[in-house]
Specification:
The protein is α/β, with parallel strands linked by helices and 236 residues long. The protein has a single domain, classed as 3-Layer(aba) Sandwich (Rossmann fold), CATH 3.40.50. The chain is built from ten helices and seven strands. It has a seven-stranded mixed beta sheet with strand order 3-2-1-4-5-7-6, sandwiched between helices. The N and C termini lie far apart (55 Å). It binds S-adenosylmethionine. The site of S-adenosylmethionine has 20 residues, from loops.
């Protein structure tokens, strides 16, 4: 059992994918539909989904007959290119919409990743992004929780928007997804018996359990949040 838990903690997104049985971002497929609507993704729109994971959002885009391609450092689905968001294997001005759900906050060099998104988006094209944001004092959490919640490099909502605008986009549509984040948290808690599982791991398990409760409190009071936005690429 201990080995199984270590494996689960070493691959937080794989574990979450199994638990959630779907996309790894708050709001799931409905949130992606909403974001694609706001980014005007319709039949024929060229979409590049960076950090596409298992490809659930690619399927959503393709369902509306968009021409969607995925890229991921570690693709879990079949129809994606393996690659880095800081070095997109795509020519300039070739994409109508870059979709980036819960991935920009993971970039070691976010400015470079945003510059790449701006480079590949055609004039008038859009960045459709959703991401974790942090406000104020975020608790000092154990590494597996920081990784699972994508908190390592998360920024405030204000800094997230400022970084996107500095890359050459005009942000014109921001939405908060606190309710989606709380619902995702409840869904995971309903499916995973944290107390039972981590109770088998002694002191380390207790530290993780304490961390989970601290993270839940930070979501509840808004220190950890989730936003989505659509930004239009300004003229070069
Ligand atoms: C939290 S998951 C989100 C997956 C998917 N976008 C979703 O919303 O369900 C983050 C994904 O980004 C990928 N990723 C992380 N860093 C990356 C990078 N530097 N370049 C490309 N993909 C990256 C991971 O492999 C993972 O599939």
């Amino acid at each position: 059992m201990q080995g199984t838990l270590e494996t689960a903690l070493a691959n937080p997104w794989g574990t979450l994918r199994t638990v959630l049985d779907g996309p790894l971002h708050p709001g799931g497929r409905a949130a992606t539909e909403n974001l694609l609507d706001r980014a005007s993704v319709t039949a024929g729109t060229r979409v590049l989904d960076i950090g596409c994971g298992a490809g659930e959002s690619l399927a959503v885009a393709r369902d509306r007959d968009a021409r969607a391609v995925g890229l991921d450092r570690d693709p879990a689905g079949e129809r994606a290119i393996r690659g880095e968001m800081t070095q997109l294997p795509v020519v300039d001005d070739s994409v109508g919409v870059v979709l980036a759900e819960c991935v920009m906050c993971l970039a070691a060099d976010r400015e470079r990743a945003l510059a790449e998104a701006a480079r590949v988006v055609e004039p008038g094209g859009r960045l459709a992004l959703s991401d974790v944001v942090v406000e104020g004092e975020v608790p000092d959490l154990p590494d597996p929780i920081v990784d699972a919640l994508c908190l390592t490099r998360s920024r405030s909502r204000e800094k997230t928007i400022a970084g996107i605008e500095a890359a050459g986009f005009v942000v014109n549509d921001v939405q908060n997804h606190r309710e989606d984040l709380l619902a995702m948290q409840d869904r995971i808690a309903a499916r995973v018996d944290y107390e039972g599982l981590l109770g088998l791991m002694g002191e380390r398990g207790q530290r993780l359990l304490d961390g989970i409760h601290e993270a839940e409190a930070a979501v509840a009071d808004g220190r950890i949040g989730y936003v989505s936005l659509v930004a239009e690429r300004s003229e070069r």
